[in-house]
Design a protein that fits this description.
0% strand; 57% helix; mainly alpha
Length: 102
Amino acid sequence: FLTTTSDGMMTPLHIMVMNPYADTGAILTCFHLNMSAAFERDDRGLSPLDYLWKYKNFDCLVPMMQGLCLHQEAHSKSCSSPVVDMDIMQASNKKRKVQENK
């Protein structure tokens, strides 16, 4: 249920956020079951968060971002380094842009 599918390397969260008829509550439930799926990229290099932004689904995007921030805050208290390393994210974004330009 929570893993990548064979359909274009999409997670269930990808499929939910791309469905214009999916209920906001159902999308957020899927997200809360596996928060890391929000960062998984499909064969186009897009994450569920990218699709929410693309389709301007702010009713889901804002609570997801809040949930990720709260999750990081809760886990950063027990870790010496933050959950999300901005240098790694920036390097990943640069790599994706280079791949898109090929």
